């Protein structure tokens, strides 16, 4: 019952990863350098997601 309001960190990271990949896709049409930076940030988030999945 007390875990009712607890946020799931995995959901939060997945949402952040989706947002970053979408931004990178949009930027790929106008600015390749910024797009690559967004993809790199998304990769870091994906590594965190994988680490959480293996620890559970």
Report the portion of residues in β strands. Answer: under 5%
- Unreliable residue stretches: none
Can you tell me the overall shape? elongated
Total strand segments? 0
Description:
It is a single chain. By secondary structure, the chain is an all-alpha fold. Helix content is 77%, strand content 0%. The protein has helices spanning 9-27, 32-55. Helix 1 (9-27) runs antiparallel to helix 2.
Task: Provide a concise account of the structure shown.
The chain is mainly α and 56 residues long. The protein has helices at residues 9-27, 32-55.
Notable characteristics:
mainly alpha; 56 residues; single chain
Annotate the secondary structure layout:
Layout: H1 9-27, H2 32-55
Helix pairs in contact: 1-2
């Amino acid at each position: 019952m007390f875990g009712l309001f607890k946020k799931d960190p995995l959901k939060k990271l997945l949402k952040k990863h989706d947002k970053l990949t979408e931004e990178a896709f949009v930027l790929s049409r106008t600015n390749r350098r910024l797009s690559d930076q967004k993809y790199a940030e998304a990769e870091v988030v994906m590594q965190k997601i994988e680490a959480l999945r293996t620890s559970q």
